[in-house]
Amino acid sequence: MSTRRFEDDYMEESAPLGGASSQQRPPIAQSTPRQPRQRGSSRHMAHMPRTLMQVMNEANDMVIRGDLSEFVPLPTGFDPLDGLIGGGLRKTELVLLGGAQGIGKTITALQMARNIASRQGQYAFYLSYEHTEAHLMNRLLCLESINPPEIDLRRGLRLKDLHDTIITERARHALRGTEVSLQKILRENERTALPVARMLNYADRLIMVKASPIVTTLRAIREMTMRLVEATNGNVTVFVDYLQKIAIHPERAADEAEKVTIIVEGLKDMALSLGVPVVAIVAADREGLRANRLHLHHLRGSSALDYECDIAIIMNNKFHILSKEVASFNPYQARQFREWVVFTIEKNRAGRAMQDMEFHLHAPYFAFDPRGQRVQQQLIDDKLIEN
Predict the structure, then answer these.
(1) Does residue 28 carry a pLDDT above 60?
(2) For residue range 191-205, what is the model confidence (pLDDT) as tens digits?
(3) How far apart are CA 157 and CA 139, in angstroms?
(4) CA 276 – CA 291 distance, rounded (Å)
(5) CATH of the domain at 327
(6) d(C-alpha 355, C-alpha 346), whole Å
(7) For residue 126, which of 31, 78, 239, 273 is within the disulfide window of CB 3.0 to 4.6 Å?
């Protein structure tokens, strides 16, 4: 079936005065029939000059095929965060997730990766410089035991519970002289059977790598991502945990600021040229760790972090950034806020910045309740802005 193209419409309506026919059009309009475009052709031509007409034709082809991936954002599963960043993650965007150690950055990124991989046809690529794939799997089992956003803590499985279950069952079978696999243990134990069943729903679409600060270079990440883009038809989201750990060999940097500049520019270029969303965790610097409230400028590295990213989300413990007036008025309620984390969108190319929302962290189960809300209490650093 033939399809009309922008050039066809354009040529019909832009004939020279005097009613010139198609026979009189310039030779460029009489070129041989075009070969069908393959999905992702724009990625292969990312650094090649193209006319606006060519770009319009590619977009036209995508819509005709029913491919709306360039226009529809990919929800992270965290609400109202998705609403504030334009509906979710978008291809070609670089998102930075910053915060102090232990605030829940890995929990957030891994839960987002799980949410994305849970959708049919979508894949998540999680590179961890901090944890092994087996440890991430165990974390996901704990998360699935409370099943966000359901958050059923009665069935909650902590990491120690999981380890004790595996060790106990393995010892019991050893005493009997029988062998038992991890898979059998998890599927037959009443506490782990449902979590592992939930995890298996997306296990084929969540790709994990235990990255090395020496071996897993920026170039290696790009090459792996390129292969995944081809294998998944472009439906992959990349998560990096964490940015400052990426190696840049054979490039050399004079200091950490220059290294971070090379890395963040490389990640942004990868997002643009391969057409994928990239979410990168960023650690705080020493000044940030001492600050009352962490901000984007406290992230470890260079100003390129601010310039290159499309969205920057900074995480702070709510109890630590409550204004003194609020904490003094109701100290009991203030103590409850230790389990809440404030996500502040400090940069947002899709909408308004400096938006605060809060999420309940269930740290023993490595999960957030993704049903967040706008922060109602006054926080330190709040400023009144007149419209």
Answers:
(1) no
(2) 999 999 999 999 999
(3) 10
(4) 34
(5) 3.40.50.300
(6) 7
(7) 239
